[in-house]
Write a structure and sequence with these properties.
heterodimer; A: 530 residues; two-stranded antiparallel ribbon; 19 helices; 8 strands; B: 330 residues; four-stranded antiparallel beta sheet; 34% helix
Chain lengths: 530, 330
C-alpha cells in the first residue's frame, strides 16, 4: 500500500467512524448524471448565485445603506461638492476609490443579469422537454418561486446605489403599491416610513437584498438540488435509455471536474464582462432627485416586460363610490403578472389534468412530440417579447427613427393578435416535423444520388436510417385523447358534464399527432420492395 | 390507428468508441501537457492581476479600439482575474474530456412511490400516534390551541405598525399656498414673468417658511414646470385661463400616472412627454392626456404676480398631485 492510499484510508476511516457515512458517500460519489449541453443552463444559474454572494459580500464592506445627505468629496471631479445620499456617495467611492471596486460592481451586476437570463433559459428547457411532469412538480414550483424572487432581488439590488435612474424605478414601484385597492396608501407609507421617498427606504431594502432574500434563495436552492439528487436527473431519449435507468457519467471524477471546471469558466466569463463591458455607470446619472429624470429611463432586462405592459395599458381609471381604482396600473402591474406567474406554477397540474397522465416521467420529450405544449410555450414567449419590445419603445424609436406612438399601437394590437398566431404556427411546425420524422423512418434519407433503372426510369436512392436513429425518432408515446364522460353507467347526465366536455376538447387538441411509424409499417414497406 | 402498433425495438447503447488518448500513450502524454499548459495560463492571469494591483497607477488611462479610453488599472485587474479563473475551468473540463473515463454508466432508477406495505404502515402509524395525542377526544384543547395559535400572529404584525405613519391627508397636501413665491430650481431665486421667454420652460419649487429645509419628500410633490407660450395659443375655459399669467402656465411636474418627472417639453407641438411610460400631455389644453397610459391631466397650479412683480401661486393645487390612490377624491 502506498503512502497516499494509507492517508486516504485513514481519513475515510476517521470520517466514517464519526458519521457512518461510508455507504452514503460511496453511493454519492458514483452517482450517475446524464450528459447534455442544456443541463448546464441550471448550473449557470447556481454558479452565478455563488458569484453574486462573493462579489456582493465584497461590496458590502464599503457600501453605506443610508439616505443621509452628504457632500461628495471623492475623486470623481464632475460631482465634486454635490449634495447626495450617503448610499450614492459610497457607491461612487467603490467605483473610483477602491482598487478593483468598479470591477467588482460590474461583475456583480453582470452576474445578476446572467443569473436571470440563465434562469429563464433553464425554465424554457424544463418546459419544452416536459421535465416538470410527475414526479418533479415540486421542483417546478420552487423554480417559479426562485424566478419571482430573482426579479425582486435584482430590482432591489440595482435600486441600492440611489442614483437618478434607480430612484425613478422605485418611484414607479411606489405607484404600483399605491394602486392596490383600499390599503395601497397605507402599504406605501409603511414601506417608505412616510411619504415617498422618505429617509428609511434604502436601509430597509438593503437588509432585504443582502440577508432576507439570499437566505430564502439558499434554502430554496438547497431543496431544489436535493430533489434533483434524490429523484435523479431526467435524460433525453435514445438507444439504451429508458424510464427505469439513468445513462451517463459518474460524479467522481468526471462530473466533479466538469461541473467544478464549469464554475470557473462561468466566473471567468463574468469577470471578463466586468473588465471590459461597462454596466450601470451611476456617476453619469447623478444622485436621485424626484424632480428630475433622465431620458430613455430603462429597467434591467428582466423587468422590461413589466414596464412594457405598464406602458401599453389604456388610460383608464374607475371611480367606485368616490374611491379611485387605477386600472391603468393595476391591470398591467398586478393582475396580469399575477395571472402569468400563477398559471406558470400550476401548469404541470393543468397538463396532467388535460392528458389524464398520472405516471412518472424521466425520459424527456422532444418538443415536436408535444405540439400543444410547445405551441403554448411559443405563445407565452411571444407575449413576453411584445411586452419587452414595448418596454424599450423609446429606445427603439430613437435608434430606428420610428415614432413611439407607432410602436405603442403595434404592441397594443400585437399583444392580442401575435401570441395566438404563434400558437397556431408553432403547432403546425411541430406536426410538420413529426411528418418529416415519419418520412425519414419509412423511406430513409434522401441521398441526392439519381440512378437510371434498366427500363429508363430515374429514381433517387434513399439511404436507410441506422437502427439507433430510427429508434430515437419513434420511441415516444402517442397518448390517445380522453373521451368526455357525459353520462354515468345508468345513463344519468353527469353533473360535471361541462367540465368533462372542456377537458375532452383540450385533450383532443393536446393529442393531435402525426402517427409515428410502427415496426409493422416498416415490414410492409420492406416486403413491398420500394 | 386500429391495428396494434408494435414500436421499433431498442437497439441498446451504441458501441463505445475509444478516444485517441485511451489507446495511444503518446496522445495521452500530449493531452496531459495540454491540461498542464491550461493551468499555467491561469497562473499567468493571477500574475497579471497582482501586477495590475501594485504596478498600474489607478488614474492611468489607455486608449483601446472599441472600448475607447479605458482605466488601465481596472481593465487589467479584470482581465487578470478573468484569465486566472477561466483557464482553471478550461483545464479541468479538458482533463475530464480527454483523460478521465468516458464509459457511459447505467444506473437503475426506482419508482418514487414507496411499496404498498410501507405506505400502509405509515398511514397506520400516523393514525395511531394522532390517537395517542387525543386531539379528537379533547375538543376543548383543540379549539383553545387553534385560537391561541391564530392570535399569537397578531403581535409581530402589530409590531410592524411603526414602520411608517398613517398617510392621513399627507398625500393631498403640497407646500403651495396662496401667495407662495415660485423659486427657480436650481438657484432658489424668485422669478418674474419677464425672466421666461415665449417658448421657454423653467422648473420651480415653492418658497418655504424661513428655517424650513427642502427635503426630497417635498420635491416629490412640489415640483412645478412653468411653460410660456403665446396667450392666444391657449385653448382653455375661462377659469383655467385665469390660472395662467401672460401666457405662462404652471403644471405639477410629477406625472399623474406613476409619479416620474415629466421633463420632456416639445416646443413645436407644445406637448409634455413623460420619459417613463410616454404619457403625453397637451400644454395648450391644460395638460390633457393625448397619448399613453395616464388617465388624468397634470394638475394645474393657478399663478399670478405679487406686489413686487414676482410670480406667486394664486391658490394651492385644486387636486392631489402625482399618481392615483384609493382615497384621492375623498
Amino acid at each position: 500500500m502506498s503512502a497516499r492510499e494509507r492517508v486516504v484510508g485513514q481519513v475515510a476511516n476517521y470520517v466514517d467512524e464519526r458519521t457512518g457515512a461510508a455507504k452514503w458517500l460511496k453511493k454519492t460519489l458514483t452517482k450517475v448524471f446524464p450528459d447534455h449541453w442544456s443541463f448546464m443552463l441550471g448550473e449557470i444559474v447556481l454558479y452565478s448565485f455563488v458569484i453574486l454572494l462573493l462579489s456582493g459580500t465584497f461590496l458590502t464592506f464599503w457600501y453605506d445603506p443610508s439616505m443621509k445627505e452628504v457632500e461628495y468629496e471623492g475623486s470623481y471631479q464632475p460631482l465634486s461638492g454635490l449634495k447626495m445620499s450617503a448610499a450614492y456617495a459610497s457607491t461612487l467611492h467603490i467605483s473610483f476609490d477602491v482598487r478593483g471596486g468598479l470591477l467588482m460592481r460590474q461583475i456583480h451586476h453582470w452576474s445578476a443579469l446572467i443569473f436571470m437570463a440563465a434562469m429563464v433559459a433553464h425554465l424554457m428547457r424544463i418546459f419544452f422537454t416536459g421535465a416538470f411532469r410527475k414526479p418533479r412538480e415540486f421542483n417546478w414550483i420552487i423554480g417559479v418561486g426562485l424566478l419571482t424572487l430573482g426579479i425582486l432581488e435584482g430590482f432591489l439590488g440595482y435600486s441600492l446605489p440611489d442614483d437618478l435612474l434607480s430612484g425613478t424605478g422605485i418611484r414607479i414601484a411606489e405607484a404600483i403599491v399605491q394602486a392596490v385597492p383600499v390599503v395601497g396608501s397605507y402599504l406605501s407609507f409603511l414601506i417608505f416610513g412616510g411619504a415617498f421617498p422618505g429617509e428609511m427606504f434604502i436601509q430597509r431594502i438593503y437588509v432585504v437584498h443582502i440577508l432576507l432574500l439570499p437566505g430564502i434563495f439558499l434554502a430554496l436552492i438547497t431543496v431544489h438540488l436535493m430533489l434533483v439528487w434524490y429523484q435523479k436527473h431526467t435524460q433525453y431519449p435514445g438507444p439504451g435509455r429508458t424510464e427505469k435507468n439513468v445513462v451517463g457519467y459518474p460524479l467522481m471524477p468526471v462530473y466533479m471536474a466538469k461541473a467544478g471546471g464549469f464554475f470557473f469558466i462561468v466566473f471567468g466569463v463574468t469577470a471578463f464582462l466586468g473588465a471590459v463591458a461597462s454596466i450601470n455607470p451611476i456617476w453619469i446619472y447623478g444622485p436621485y432627485n424626484p424632480g428630475q429624470i433622465g431620458a430613455g429611463s430603462q429597467p434591467d432586462w428582466y423587468m422590461g416586460w413589466l414596464d412594457g405592459l405598464v406602458r401599453m395599458a389604456p388610460p383608464i381609471e374607475a371611480y367606485i363610490f368616490g374611491y379611485t381604482l387605477s386600472l391603468n396600473i393595476m391591470i398591467p402591474g398586478l393582475i396580469i403578472p399575477g395571472i402569468i406567474f400563477t398559471g406558470m406554477a400550476l401548469y404541470p397540474f393543468i397538463e396532467s389534468w388535460i392528458t389524464g397522465d398520472k405516471r412518472e416521467h424521466h425520459l424527456l420529450d422532444r418538443p415536436r412530440n408535444a405540439p400543444n405544449r410547445t405551441a403554448l410555450g411559443a405563445m407565452s414567449l411571444t407575449f413576453m417579447l411584445v411586452t419587452l419590445i414595448n418596454g424599450g419603445n423609446d429606445l427603439l424609436a430613437t435608434h430606428f427613427d420610428l415614432s413611439i406612438n407607432q410602436i405603442m399601437w403595434f404592441s397594443r394590437i400585437g399583444i392580442i393578435v401575435l401570441p395566438p398566431l404563434a400558437f397556431v404556427i408553432t403547432k403546425r411546425i411541430c406536426l410538420s416535423l413529426q411528418r418529416a420524422d415519419r418520412e425519414l423512418v419509412l423511406h430513409g434519407k434522401e441521398t441526392g444520388r439519381l440512378v437510371m433503372l434498366p427500363h429508363g426510369e430515374f429514381i433517387e436512392v434513399h439511404e436507410q436510417l441506422s437502427p439507433e436513429r430510427a429508434y430515437l425518432l419513434t420511441q415516444h408515446e402517442q397518448l390517445p385523447a380522453l373521451q368526455a364522460n357525459l353520462t354515468d353507467e345508468s345513463g344519468v347526465r353527469n353533473p360535471k358534464s361541462l367540465r368533462a366536455k372542456v377537458r375532452a376538447r383540450l385533450s383532443r387538441s393536446h393529442a393531435e399527432q402525426i402517427a409515428k411509424p410502427a415496426a409493422s409499417d416498416l415490414k410492409e414497406l420492406e416486403s413491398g420492395q420500394h | 390507428m386500429s391495428k396494434e402498433l408494435t414500436p421499433l425495438s431498442d437497439p441498446g447503447l451504441s458501441e463505445h468508441v475509444h478516444r485517441k488518448a485511451d489507446v495511444d500513450p503518446q496522445a495521452a502524454k500530449k493531452a496531459e501537457r495540454q491540461v498542464g499548459i491550461l493551468f499555467l495560463l491561469s497562473v499567468f492571469g493571477t500574475l497579471l492581476f497582482v501586477y495590475a494591483y501594485v504596478g498600474i497607477d489607478e488614474d492611468s488611462f489607455i486608449f483601446l479600439p472599441v472600448l475607447g479610453s479605458t482605466n488601465a488599472h481596472q481593465l487589467f485587474l479584470g482581465l487578470g482575474l478573468a484569465i486566472a479563473l477561466f483557464f482553471i475551468g478550461m483545464a479541468a473540463v479538458h482533463w475530464a474530456k480527454v483523460l478521465m473515463p468516458d464509459h457511459e454508466v447505467i444506473d437503475h432508477r426506482k419508482e418514487q412511490r414507496s411499496k404498498d406495505e410501507e405506505r400502509d404502515d405509515f398511514v397506520a402509524t400516523v393514525k395511531e400516534r394522532s390517537a395517542e395525542a387525543g386531539l379528537g377526544r379533547r375538543p376543548f384543547i383543540k379549539r383553545t390551541m387553534l385560537l391561541s395559535l391564530g392570535l399569537v400572529g397578531i403581535s409581530p404584525i402589530l409590531l410592524l405598525g411603526d414602520l411608517g405613519p398613517l398617510p392621513g391627508d399627507d398625500q393631498k397636501k403640497t407646500n403651495w399656498k396662496s401667495g407662495t413665491r415660485l423659486l427657480t430650481d436650481p438657484g432658489d431665486r424668485p422669478i418674474r414673468p419677464s425672466d421666461l421667454e415665449v417658448g421657454g420652460v423653467a422648473q420651480v419649487q415653492p418658497e418655504l417658511a424661513a428655517g424650513k429645509v427642502r427635503h426630497l419628500d417635498d420635491i416629490a410633490k412640489d415640483s412645478v414646470l412653468l411653460i410660456r407660450i403665446r396667450p392666444e395659443e391657449f385653448n382653455l375655459d375661462a377659469k383655467r385661463l385665469s390660472w395662467t399669467y401672460e401666457g405662462i402656465i404652471a403644471f405639477s411636474k410629477i406625472c399623474s400616472h406613476m409619479g416620474c418627472a415629466v421633463a420632456l417639453y416639445e416646443q413645436t407641438t407644445k406637448h409634455l412627454l413623460c420619459p417613463c411610460h410616454q404619457s403625453t400631455f397637451d400644454v395648450t389644453r391644460a395638460a390633457k392626456v393625448i397619448f399613453g397610459p395616464s388617465a388624468r391631466a397634470l394638475p394645474q397650479l393657478p399663478i399670478t404676480v405679487d406686489s413686487q412683480g414676482y410670480l406667486v401661486a394664486k391658490e394651492p393645487f385644486s387636486e392631489p398631485v402625482g399618481p392615483s390612490f384609493w382615497r384621492r377624491n375623498k
